[in-house]
Amino acid sequence: MAVTGQQIRSAARGVSRDAARASTRESTSWQGNAKTSEVDQTDLRLLRLLALYRAVVGVALAVLAAGTDARVETYAAAFAYAAWALVSLFTFQRFKGRIPSLLLVQLTIDLALIAFVLITTQTRITAYAAYLFPIAAAHGWFFRSRIAFAHAAFAAMVLLVAEWFVRDVSVSGVTQAAVVGAGYFLMTAVGMLLGGSAASSEELAISRSEDIRRLAQVNQMVISELSDGVLAVNADGQVIMSNPRARRWLTGDEATMRPQLHIDDVSITLSQRWRSFVQHGSTVDGSPITVSVGPRGEGETGIAKSKVLLPRFMPIDVQQDGGTIIFLEDLDQAQAEAQQIKLAALGRLSASIAHEIRNPLSAIKQAAQLLGEEVQGSEQAMSLSRIIDKNTERIDRIVRDVSLLGRRDRGTPEMLSLPNMAKECIQELIPHINAHGGYQLSATSDVYVKVDKSHLEEMLNNLLSNAWRHSRKNRGSVRVSVGSNFETQRAIIQVHDDGDGVPKNVIDKIFEPFFSGSGSTGLGLYLVRELAQAAGGNVRLGQSTTGARFVLELPLAIVKNPG
């Protein structure tokens, strides 16, 4: 059955229109699939490979045409095609976001050349149409949608029209065109499959890369928040990674560490331990090391401080070059934490013991009072009774303080004026210790704190009574000042006496439980510190040229009438 030329031309025009509409309609879809916001490296390499292929095809067509009675125009067209393909190698970057249009234009040029060669050389369609198979596969790779099949249909119809111009269309010619068209569709489908597989692999690679990036970020955050210092040293001894704590301890600068800093420049002792570990697989000396911290920013005076660190070494492959991870443990902090745990356990034990002591203590106290009434005429017996009363009162204070320690975390915070609380405590304390005129109170502003009232009273009473006990007991011997620090958001109360001050050899012990140098229970300052820390504050011994100055800091709530 013969097909007329009019039918072929009509069908070709219809396919051409459909391909153009599909190219316009689905360019947005291709942009989502092929990332046309810019030409990525994979697409750019494929476009350049196609350009080289077209250049080779152009030269091959010229060579094949030499074996026929082709005209000069055929050679010129083939070489012009090859030249255009080579020039296009350097122009792809200008088509960012317009790859669909570029591919359609290139396909049109491909078809125009092959059709021209077919007509001028009077060669059958199967002789040259096979050159479009790789190009059809490339269109399937790029588009991965029905637009690629529209391009394949467009190419098949154009070559069928060219075949019609060469000779009358017959069943044989239509069959050959159908075979070529089927080949285009097949290659397009293969290209789509390969492109989809490549896209899936690329998405998986991007996803894995993102997972690795997030994991690296999490690792960096964890390392930065470690209480230990961490150094990564390569085989040459260069520090390639460090966390802020290690930088602060070893260089005095938490923010940065000089790039490619050698471990010898960090610490000679640490360097010797590292070399011993590298050579022997372990360190011969496992004792702590002492490093100088500072001198920048490590104290009010800018003087370098020393810190005791315990290094631990772990081998690791750093950047494919055997390296070492060095962990630096702060022994001062470890000892402080151990001490805190010990004191907490001691506090719980003491609270339990205090509860058991309270009942027999009450019985002893009542018996002593009855005994005192029975021996009114005997001075010696009265003296013994007073000794019993005094010591039972002391034991009772210890029991009360220890019981308060057990309840330090169960207070009810309320808004309190610190100057008013200090004034009330002074007024209540004066009659009991006979300190009339002994306290001088000043306040720069009406400072408010939010703490448990009984806890605040206990802290103030301990500081005030302790100051009077160690003062010269003159008028104004104890100076109490109330203020605030807006930068640290702290309310500050300072209690300063005119006594002999705290001996240097006991400064580190005054806040320990049951430490006393004046016959007191030894729990006063320890209780103040525990209650202050439970409220989010602290107490410390301030610098003073005369007497002792204790500074109590609590979280600042409100400041009224700043002076």
Descriptive report:
Residues 1-39 and 295-304 have low confidence and may be disordered. With 563 residues, the chain is α+β, with helices and mostly antiparallel strands. Helix 16 (453-469) runs antiparallel to helix 17. It is built from 17 helices and twelve strands. A hairpin with a 4-residue loop joins strand 9 and strand 10 (490-496). The chain folds into four domains: 5-205, no CATH class; 229-331, PAS domain (Beta-Lactamase), CATH 3.30.450; 334-406; 413-560, Heat Shock Protein 90, CATH 3.30.565.10. Strands 6, 7, 8, 9, 10, 11 and 12 form a seven-stranded mixed beta sheet that branches. It has a five-stranded antiparallel beta sheet with strand order 2-1-5-4-3.
Shape: rod-shaped
Please tally the helical runs, counting DSSP H or I stretches of 4 or more residues.
Answer: 17
Cα end-to-end separation: 111 Å
The secondary structure category is alpha+beta
Largest sheet: 7 strands, mixed
Number of domains: 4
Order of helices and strands: HHHHHHHHHEEHHHEEEHHEHEEHEEHEE
Give the uncertain stretches in residue-range form: 1-39, 295-304
Could you report the average pLDDT, rounded to the nearest whole number? Answer: 77
Tally of strands: 12
Helix content: 55-70%
Beta fraction of the residues? Answer: 15-25%
